[in-house]
Amino acid sequence: MQRWGYWTTAEKPPPHWVWQPQTPRAAAVAPYFFGRCCPELRTQSGGPVLVLRLGAFDLEGALRENLVEELMEPWIFMVEQTFQLCREVAFEKKRLVKLACIVDIEGVSFTWLQHLSVLQQFAKAINRHYPEMAQTLTVIRAPHIFTWLWEVAAPLLLEEMTLKKVAILGHDFREGLAAHAGVAAAELPSFLGGGGEEELVPDCPPGCTTRRPERRRTRRSQRIRRPASRPAGLCHRDFCFSPAGLVDNYKE
């Protein structure tokens, strides 16, 4: 905790941990982390809000540079920071207080399915050590195909009790977010259309591999023809989603 922040005794919000990397290594890794606890952002019941910007997480780059274990440290700091804030607010209000988690998945590609084991490591850290801490989990800016994808991946990542708290919303998420999580859209970080600070949850840093490179135009004769027997569905990079299931290693 002391490598990634410091404890403040400010009255508003109640005493809590503040995200501010304290070592050169932590400062170097921090821009590549994908989430923040927002102490000033609260639900209608007073609970703190956790914002995860998965589209800004360079998962493939983290694997390539062996940074997954190092990113587990800020992950634990963020969750513990939120847990301690829930505790302080609960003492103040004299009742149980839980957090609301908002997961922005705009920019997440289907290649993430190759790395579900990595995502499971982050999920297990919460399921094992911080059970029942979330009141709601709201996925926003989700494409239509994500609903099907969620049915496949969610049971591998979350406990059954947590799954019951999940709502999946598209790009028009303001009313749904307020109804499900009790979070006013006007108070969200600016990248979500609110008035909060965007740097709370940074964008994909320079050089990351999350964003798809622009395709180079090729002549029709140079394009690789897809086999006529491939399953009908939506193709994206190395995957083909179809009613028949997930077909791996299908390359264009």
From TrEMBL:
Coiled coil: none
Positions of the CRAL-TRIO domain: 33-200
InterPro entries with a match to the protein in the record: CRAL-TRIO_dom, CRAL-TRIO_dom_sf, SEC14/CRAL-TRIO_domain
Biased composition (Basic residues): 213-228
Species: Durusdinium trenchii
Signal peptide: none
Chain residue ranges for the region called Disordered: 202-230
Lineage: Eukaryota, Sar, Alveolata, Dinophyceae, Suessiales
Name this polypeptide is given: CRAL-TRIO domain-containing protein
Superkingdom of this protein's organism: Eukaryota
A Pfam family matched in the record: CRAL_TRIO
